[in-house]
Amino acid sequence: MAGQGDSSSSEKKSKEVMNDVSTFRAENLQNNMKVVYYSRTFLSIIGGAIAGILGLTGFMGFILYFIVMAITSIGLIAKAKFSLHSYFDCWNRIILDGFLGGLMSFVLFWTLAYDVVHIF
Amino acid sequence: MGLGFMVGVLGVLFLFHAAYSTIQGLLKIMEEEFSGPPMNLLLGFVFCISAALTVPGYFLSIHPDSEENRIVSLSANLDFMIFNHRAKALPLETDMKLKH
């Protein structure tokens, strides 16, 4: 009906042959990316607070960050009910996106919690 | 949405409680490894994980031919607005000629 005809409200983009889906609804993909980014940011802040409370220093804290990010990735893939291709166009979007942005928040809250709990 | 938010607040409260216990010296985290504090921390962490996965909302399908994507509505564009007016009662002039 209206799916094949005019598509002025849902901007469809075509990608290369590499992806399975050639056209998709970009606004839904943007919404999914917003959800992923929100979850990752919140959990990196919580992970930073936990690292500070536990008193981790040095390399162990970053190990905890990777563990928290891995748990987040598994949780997001489970939220997408393991059929990733109906919500995202490639695997990198749900696994790697927001990784480095969360690292900054993690270190900030890690130092904050460590100072509050162990030094102050 | 409200329930997920409450679960997140509860998880953060658990973390605050664990931090307070650590400050007071009730939980000596620095000496021992895995006994007392991870119970509080683990519970708070699990609550925060479940809140972080439910609060932002659902994933929407990106296939153009899935069930909820089939009906596409146009934005409020003046060129495509349809008004139910009485011009259909006017006689249709199918025999127009150029005036010269």
UniProtKB/TrEMBL annotation, chain A:
Alphabetic keyword roster: Endoplasmic reticulum, Membrane, Transmembrane, Transmembrane helix
GO biological process: autophagosome assembly; protein folding in endoplasmic reticulum
UniProt-listed Pfam families: EMC6
Bilayer-crossing regions: 35-56, 62-82, 94-114
Chief location: endoplasmic reticulum
Annotated InterPro entries: Emc6 (IPR008504), EMC6-like (IPR029008)
Name of the protein in its database record: ER membrane protein complex subunit 6
Native source organism of the sequence: Gossypium mustelinum
TrEMBL record, chain B:
Keyword check for rRNA-binding: no
Regions that span the bilayer: 41-60
MF term (GO), any: inorganic cation transmembrane transporter activity
Annotated signal sequence range: 1-21
Gene Ontology terms: cellular component: early endosome; EMC complex; Golgi apparatus; plasma membrane
Compartments reported by the entry: Membrane
Entry keywords, A to Z: Membrane, Signal, Transmembrane, Transmembrane helix
Protein name per UniProt: Membrane magnesium transporter
Species this protein is from: Gossypium mustelinum (Cotton)
PANTHER family linked to this entry: ER MEMBRANE PROTEIN COMPLEX SUBUNIT 5, PTHR21181
